[in-house]
Specification:
The structure holds two protein chains of two kinds. Helix content of chain A is about 70%, strand content about 0%. Chain A is mostly helical. Chain A is elongated. By secondary structure, chain B is mostly helical. Chain B has three domains: about 1-195, AhpD-like, CATH 1.20.1290; about 215-305, Rna Polymerase Sigma Factor, Chain: A (Orthogonal Bundle); about 330-415, Orthogonal Bundle (Arc Repressor Mutant, subunit A). In chain B, helix 8 (about 125-140) crosses helix 10 (about 155-180). The longest helix of chain B is centred in the middle third of the chain and has 24 residues, at about 155-180. Classes of the chains: A mainly alpha, B mainly alpha.
């Protein structure tokens, strides 16, 4: 099957959907063909994936100590 | 009752019973490969193998057996992955219930939400038979004749062995994750109210599953003044409420105040909650409104225009930095300066991008849930998510010379961390 070419601009528009498996098979094939020959877009892809992995694995907004207890007391006292 | 609740809250915040191994202490290259691979395969996730990493031989053997049964074998991966989610919900392991294998991306949200509900049946007969088998193996002694008759219509004996081994490994793995107290990452419980549970069963042979009160029942009781019922609704999403507030306000004290105000507002208006969305979705929506209100009131945040919410999605964002970022994120994350840089980068995003990014990538809510919470279309969520991710990539990419990972001083001029 001949894969229709895709521009860098179109790749950037879809790169977020691509890493979420949110593009159809045809677009996926076009993007994958593009990544094979475009170092810039591959760098964008790797970096965007890394951002998502970084936050999935570890960005933390730790709840302050005693948060749950204080919230429970607020509800109870209301 | 109060005493019991307090002890539950202690359990929520305690440290894991078995800590995770630091990436710098992983010296076995094959274990390294297992941990890195888990970042892609997701189930089990990296935290699982980092915990198992205290015993590399066991971790590697488990990974081999798991890969053989989960992604290999003759039974479609999709069926096994849905059964795995069902088992996690029945065992009550929120950590495991939250993961989804990217290879099974076509599993629908309805399937994930409903697979462990007592009165829901999967429309596909072959999948249904596997789910029934997973259910009886997890909850009972696995000898239900009717289940085996149904199973044999769709699966060979070899496939039944594959399913049995996979389901038992899954149930055991879920119990391990629970016993180690691996902290669930997301804020909203991935286990729907009313899911069949192993907890509270009077005996292993009990034929009727124990049912937790449904969300609707808890809301009804809360509307009648039952504060414990209301806290039962709030508790699974209190981390999400706090994370939402702190990501908008960038201040822990303000975030706690806003979180409390949002919860009390939800209590005051609970009778008006029509149940069109999940309670958690509604509560996060209230939290976002309260946090935005706080931003408007607080002069410290005037530089950040909340009116930006109403700007259109026109205008593309183009990547500015084409640096190759090859450092393994999990290794980078061990470094405090990278974690701090990440938090600063998120905090510097315009509010409308930050909200979407935190809901989707930090809290891992579904696109449609994020859209519902923010009152925007799913298309807008995707567009904002793209821009947030590209902006963060530009802010964090280490430079074409790789000096971030190499620690070369010249890169410090470009990236100050």
């Amino acid at each position: 099957m001949k894969v229709i070419e895709i521009s860098c601009l179109e790749v950037w528009r879809e790169i977020s959907n691509y890493i979420e498996d949110g593009v159809d098979a045809e677009l996926r094939a076009r993007m994958e063909a593009h990544f094979k020959v475009c170092a810039h877009c591959t760098a964008i892809l790797d970096g965007t994936r890394n951002v998502v992995k970084l936050v999935t694995d570890g960005v933390e907004y730790p709840m302050p100590d005693g948060f749950s207890q204080r919230l429970y007391n607020k509800i109870k006292d209301k | 009752m109060v005493t019991k609740k307090r002890s539950n809250m202690t359990a929520l915040t305690r440290a894991p019973n078995v800590p995770q191994v630091a990436d710098t202490d992983v010296n076995d290259p094959k274990l390294r490969q297992v941990i890195d691979g888990a970042a892609i395969t997701k189930s089990p996730p990296q935290a699982w193998y980092r915990t198992m990493g205290h015993n590399p031989e066991v971790a590697k053997a488990f990974a081999n057996y798991w890969d053989l049964l989960h992604r290999g074998g003759a039974v479609p991966h999709q069926i096994k992955e849905l059964a795995r989610i069902q088992i996690a919900q029945m065992i009550g392991c929120d950590f495991c219930a939250r993961q989804t294998s990217p290879l099974a991306a076509t599993i629908t949200e309805e399937e994930k939400t409903c697979c462990a509900l007592p009165n829901w049946e999967h429309p596909d007969a072959k999948t249904r038979a596997a789910l029934h088998y997973a259910r009886t193996l997890t909850l009972d002694d696995g000898r239900d004749t009717a289940v085996y008759e149904e199973l044999k219509e769709y699966y060979s004996n070899a496939e039944i062995i594959e399913l049995a081994a996979f389901f038992c490994l899954t149930a055991g793995g879920n119990r391990m994750a629970k016993s180690w107290s691996i902290e669930p990452h997301g804020g909203v419980s991935a286990i729907p109210a009313g899911a069949i549970s192993i907890h509270g069963r009077e005996s292993m042979g009990a034929s009727k599953p124990h049912l937790e009160p449904t969300e609707a029942e808890l809301i009804q009781r809360a509307c009648q003044g039952d504060k414990e019922a209301f806290y039962s609704l709030v508790r699974p999403c209190e981390r999400a409420v706090y994370t939402t507030a702190v990501s908008i306000l960038n201040n822990p004290e303000d975030a706690e105040e806003v979180a409390q105000e949002a919860v009390l507002k939800a209590l005051a208006h609970l009778a008006g909650f029509r149940g069109e969305a999940k309670f958690s979705t509604w509560l996060i929506q209230i939290t976002i409104n309260e946090a935005r209100l706080k931003l408007r009131k607080d002069r410290r945040h005037l530089y950040e225009s909340v009116d930006e919410q109403r700007t259109s999605e026109d205008g593309e964002y183009f990547p500015k930095d084409f640096a190759d970022w090859r450092e393994i994120p999990s290794e980078a994350l061990q470094r405090k300066e990278v974690r701090e840089a990440l938090k600063r980068a998120i905090a510097s995003l315009p509010l409308k991008y930050r909200e979407v990014f935190v809901l989707r990538d930090v809290q891992q809510l579904r696109i449609e849930e994020a859209a519902q919470i923010l009152g925007i279309t799913e298309g807008s969520v995707k567009t904002r998510l793209l821009r947030a991710r590209l902006r963060l990539r530009d802010a964090l990419a280490p430079g074409i010379d790789g000096s971030w990972s190499m620690g070369k001083p010249e890169y410090q001029k470009v990236r100050p961390w």
